[in-house]
Structures are given as C-alpha cells and as structure tokens.
Amino acid sequence: MSLKIKMLLLFLLPVSFIVSQSGFTTLGGANFLGYGRAGITLEGIESIYLNQAGLTGVKNMAFDLSAERRFNLQDLSTICFSGAKSFKFGTIGVMASNFGITEYNEQKFGLAYARKLSKLISIGGQFDMLRLNVSQFGSKNIFTFEIGMLLMINKEFTVATHVFSPGNITISEGNDLGTRFRMGLKYTPSPKVFLLAEMDKLIYRKIEYKIGVSYQAVKDLQVRLGVNPSTKTFCFGAMLSIRNSYKIATAYALNGNLGNTPAFSLQYQN
Fold this sequence. Notes:
- The chain has 270 residues and is mainly β.
- The chain is 5% helix and 58% strand.
- It has 2 helices and 16 strands.
- The strands form 2 sheets. A 14-stranded antiparallel β-barrel has the order 1-2-3-4-5-6-7-10-11-12-13-14-15-16. The chain has a two-stranded antiparallel ribbon with strand order 8-9.
- Strand 3 (90-100) and strand 4 (104-116) form a beta hairpin.
- The protein is globular, with a radius of gyration of 18 Å.
C-alpha cells in the first residue's frame, strides 16, 4: 500500500474511528459533490443517500448509479446504486454502496420508505446494514437506521433535517459509530436558480457548513457550484438532461491539502 494511501487512511481513521466521514454517509457521487456535498433538501432518487424524505419526489420509478474517486485515488473509490418505486401508500427504495481498499472496506445496504403527510411535509427513513472490513481486525456487520423530514414553507423556501444512526452503537472497545445530524435550507428565488445552505454535525466533530448553488444555464443543462469552508473544499459540476428520462452529472472537488476528487452520476426516471 502506497505511503499516500496510508496517510489518507490515517486521516479517515483516527483514534475516534470516524467511519461516518468515509463511506457510510458520504455517498451520492456527482449528485451532491457539485454542491459541496450539500443536498438534504433535494427531492428525487438521489435523496436516498442523504435524506430519504425526498424520495416522495419520485413520480413512478427511478434508478441511480454514482461513483466517486476520493482524492483521485482508485483505491479510495466509492460506487453506489439505488432504485425506488412510488406506490399509493408511499415510496420504497433500496440502495447499496462500496468504499475502500483491501485493507479497509465499507459496504452499506439500505431499505428506505418515504411518504407525504401533506402537500407540504414529507418524512422518510431507512434501515441500514453496514459491513466494515478491516484487514487487521476482521469483519463486522452493524445494523442501524436513519430518518429525515422535508418541509416546504412556500414556493421559495424548503427546510429539511436528517439524523443518521441515532443512539450509541459500539463497533469495538473504545470505538463507536457516530450519530450524524444534518439541517438544511433551500432557497429558490427563480425557476432557474436555487441556493442550498447546510449544517452537518458528526457527534464528536465540529459543525461543518456547506453552501451550494444551481443555475439552469439552458433547458437541459444545469451548472453547480459548492463550497465547504470547514474542509477548505471548493466544488463545481454540471448535469445534462436527456429526453426528460436520463440525467448525467459530473462534479469535481478541489482540496489543496488532500487532493482533488472527481465524481459521476447517471439517473433514469419515468
């Protein structure tokens, strides 16, 4: 294993065992990377990765395939797949993801459900099986859940909140799976522009603040920008819509200390 990867693993896996910063909740590829990883207020199939309440935005059936190469290292790549189907009683979704290398690997499998309580309020949740593989310690399966809410205040403002793994789940002696809280705001001043603002708090880390903006440059092309001042990461991306059924998104994150991260997402919906 190269020296650079070893140093990155030290960053990703300090003594407090911060698994939630690596692959269990940092999913979705270019769907969110272009916004600086903000996006719990978004609706559609991509919401299964950050806030399942947004699955109520799936009109019939949708699928997503996303990939990300963390710090542009192939050994630190994430790939995830999800699908969702809406019914009269709500929307059901499934997802699976894989992150890491032989020495350290994370897998996540989720079963999600979302429904509208009214025209303005949506709720959602997901049961998760997390599989952690560490070459020196073996493998372990962890079962947990996550819940979220989406509230449309009016046509311009939407707020959301999401909690990943409430409670204290022990992975090993002295190492816990940290609870993660997110709160976000979406402001849509015009049909072509919306802005995202988000707070992200892992239980034993300082709050991260994220800001994203989307601009509909032309009918089928959306341009995205994002920034995370806490990690000094700057992001940009674009999404192309094809025949209203396919969406192709790319994103790139710039970080002078750890390296740059490219991401890709492909969606189908009908």
